[in-house]
Amino acid sequence: MNIYLAIIIGSLLAAWFLGVLSDRLSARAMRPAPPEELADVFDAETYARSQAYTLASMKFSTVSETFNTLILVLAILAGGFNLLDVLVRTAGFGPLATGLAYIAALALISGVIGLPFEIYHTFVLEKRFGFNTTTPGTFVLDRIKGLVLGAVIGGALVAGLLLFLRETGPYAWLLCWGFAVLLSLGLTYVAPTWILPLFNKFTPLEEGELRGKLMAFADKAGFELSGIFVMDGSKRSTKGNAFFTGFGKRRRIALFDTLIKEMDADEIVAVLAHEVGHARLGHIKKRLATGILKAGAVFYLMSLFLDSAGLFAAFGMEHMSLYAGLVFFVLLYTPLSLALGVVANAVSRKHEFEADAFAARTTGRPDAMISALKKLSASNLSNLTPHPLTVWLEYGHPPVLARIRALAAGR
């Protein structure tokens, strides 16, 4: 058997199996009553709903992942990637246009296959538990805008990579790396002004107690903000959240309108302090540096396999091409991606604990951070007792109970 085919099929099936096993174990880890620390926000009805939501989400995940994995494995074994390549080549485009058309066609096929699951998740599952506020019109517009952005940004990225790989010789991976990093940093810089407003409305937080407390904390922490904005998160969901966008002098915080409705001013200050903690403790810089180094390693590995006849034989390809090599390498990279994802999640969970501790220390109100976490977990119907395997595989944030206990212990 082709070794590349064995690695790709094996890793796809392993990822599917781990996901299913994780869900089964988390379902068994559920308890009849909420942990004592959360009993004040999870009454019997809320706790029952959170467990029902968790189980429904697991079932949905199992069905969707099983279907997607099956389709992908069948496409590989049946020579679907070659059939698409032959079809695209009949158009008679040049090498660059053919490559863009091939990858665009794969992305479109993937989107069409996943669309029924997106519709079900949004308008059935999320609606059943009272989360969805997305209208059909908003859903359609979001998908159209996503397609346009994907075509522009993804097209620019793929075109740049293909040109460097074709024209610049054995060290093309270095130029690909630099190009991808610059494009990513550029998008991060312009996203707050040009991209995010395409999907949501951002309104400056009005003067008042909340803005005053947030600005006072930012000044105390020596953290410069270009603005504090309220985002109309309720346009799509009742779930609350907050996040930073941009970097340098363009840093701004966005608070979901749903978050403002759920929490008092001290709790929202604690949420801001947590986010500031990520910056002050160097988490953002470390994440950026790690991402850049990882991208370099990926592009170097890619350069080793792009012209591998065995890799193309695994997909039954009649022709070798740079654009197909990019796609096949992404699939070959699956096992390493899974392993690195586990490590990244572990580091992320550590950073979340540190940011929580920073918020408690700088605000002097660990109780406010605990209260904010409790409210978020209750309003989002979080799973309070995920299995350790689920946390290990999937959680970039520690389970809420672990965070509350760490804050209560003063860590």
TrEMBL record:
InterPro entries: CAXX_Prtase_1, Peptidase_M48, Peptidase_M48_N. Gene3D superfamilies: Metalloproteases ('zincins'), catalytic domain (3.30.2010.10). Its cofactor is Zn(2+). Residues 31-201 form the CAAX prenyl protease 1 N-terminal domain. It comes from the Bacteria. Pfam families: Peptidase_M48 (PF01435), Peptidase_M48_N (PF16491). Binds 1 zinc ion per subunit. Keywords: Hydrolase, Membrane, Metal-binding, Metalloprotease, Protease, Transmembrane, Transmembrane helix, Zinc. Residues 204-408 form the Peptidase M48 domain. The chain crosses the membrane at residues 6-22, 67-88, 100-125, 146-165, 171-191, 295-316, 322-344. Belongs to the peptidase M48 family. This is M48 family metallopeptidase. It comes from Pseudodesulfovibrio methanolicus.
